[in-house]
Structure formats: C-alpha cells, structure tokens
Design brief:
This protein is an alpha/beta fold. Helices cover 34% and strands 26% of the residues. Helix 2 crosses helix 3, helix 2 packs parallel to helix 4 and helix 3 crosses helix 4. The chain starts with 6 loop residues before the first strand and ends with a helix.
Length: 244
C-alpha cells in the first residue's frame, strides 16, 4: 500500500554542471505520494535535468538525490519496476507494433506474460490507441508515439510517475486523456512529477506548481490562482533581473 503523503522524490542542495555551465544551482524540492507536482519554466530552465537526476541517468556534482529513500544510481533493478517515466523522446521499438511494444513494457515492469498482455490491452483502450494497435511504431504520427510512450509509462500502475512535457504533440483529445490518467494516478496514491510550459493545463491537475528559472527554483504558483501566466513571468523576470 502506498503511504500517502510520503516524499518519494527528494533532492537537497543539488548542483549539476554540464561542462563549465551550471544547469541546476542549489535546488531543493520533493514530490509526495498522492500528489501531482508540476515544474514549469522556460526552455533550458533545468526541468529535464532534474528528472534525469531522479531517474539515475546522471549524478549531481553536489547535493543529495533520493528516490523512495534511496540514491537512484545505486538502486537495484527491482526497485525501478514501480517507476514509470517519459522523458524527452518516447522509447519504443520502431519495427514492433503498438501492442507488442506495450507487452514488452509490461514484462520489463515485472508483470507476468498474462498480466502484461492484459495491461497492454487496457492501456491501448485508455490511451485511444485501438485503431493503431497492430500498426508498426515507425508508421505512427508524433502524437500517437507520445500516447504510446505514456501508455508504456503507465503499464504497471506505477507508484511513481515522472513525465517530461507529456502533452507535447497531442491534440485536445489527447490532452484530456493525459489529464484523466494523472488524476487516476493521484487517486490511487501515486506520486507524479510532471514538467510543462502549458500553465493553464497543469493548473487543472497539479496540487503544487514550482517555477524553475535558469537552474534555480524561484517560487511557486497556486493552481487555483488567477492570471498564472502573468505571475509566472513576474517570477522569471524578477529572478533574471536580480542575477549578476
């Protein structure tokens, strides 16, 4: 059972560099079970880098990163089966069909063959991919590849979900499907970290909105507030002006 309210993602005083460039500077934040925590910022703000840290793709130069109390780069493979993610480009084998890719994703997430097949069929229906279930991935549109990536991330009902710009390339119907899935994840107690630059959309699903600018956390927004776009740009502008 998921312990609602527990911090499943934590980082403290994290600093990360790419060469000489500092891309995250003294960042501290957390994502709790039973919440959708959105991170918003301009391109290059550091959102994707933060997600890559939590997924163990890179290590911080300074500070601490924890996933469910463990350092992600030292976590055994079995701990990753409860973590769904879609960061940057949706991963899929282009010569396999949508259904075959999802069955494989289910097996990689620790499901039995029977359960992986059932979960693949369920996700195909929930992400409105039925028409393309037997199509090879290389023939899919960008929007349908994005839906497939989301389905793969959700295949095993993860207790932790990390999504980088999940509504990219999606039409309005796809955006609503994403919204529904995030709400379901929250309801069953999962922790959801999502990045986006669509403020109006994240405000519909987020419990918390954190603003990132040039590698720093510069403030937060109330999802129920008004004129979020103006508030966002005020935070970004004042932070940029205050920098040396």
């Amino acid at each position: 059972m998921i312990d609602t309210g527990a911090a499943l993602l934590e980082c403290r005083n994290v600093r990360t560099r790419y060469g000489a460039a500092v891309v995250l500077d003294d960042v501290s934040t957390e994502v709790k079970s039973g919440e959708v925590h959105a991170f918003v910022g301009l391109n290059g703000a550091g959102k994707t880098t933060l997600m890559r840290l939590f997924l163990g793709m890179i290590e911080p130069d300074e500070g601490t990163v924890l996933v469910d109390g463990r350092a992600p780069t030292t976590m055994p493979a079995r701990y990753w089966t409860g973590i769904g993610h879609l960061v940057e480009t949706p991963f899929a084998y282009p010569e396999l069909t949508v259904r075959e890719n999802l069955r494989m994703a289910g097996r990689l997430a620790g499901l039995s063959i029977r359960n992986a097949h059932a979960a693949a069929d369920r996700c195909i229906e929930e992400l409105a991919l039925t028409r393309w279930a037997t199509a090879r991935v290389r023939k899919l549109s960008m929007g349908n590849r994005q839906r497939l990536g989301l389905a793969a991330a959700l295949i095993a009902d993860p207790h932790l979900l990390i999504l980088d710009e999940p509504t990219n390339a999606l039409d309005p119907a796809g955006v609503i499907l994403v919204r529904t899935q995030l709400q379901r994840c929250r309801e069953r107690g999962a922790a959801v970290m999502v990045s986006s630059h669509h403020l109006d959309e994240v405000a519909r699903v987020a419990d918390r909105i954190t603003v990132v600018n040039a590698g720093r956390i510069v403030g937060s927004l109330d999802p129920d507030g008004i004129d979020l776009e103006r508030q966002f740009f005020d935070l970004v502008y004042h932070d940029s002006e205050a920098r040396p």
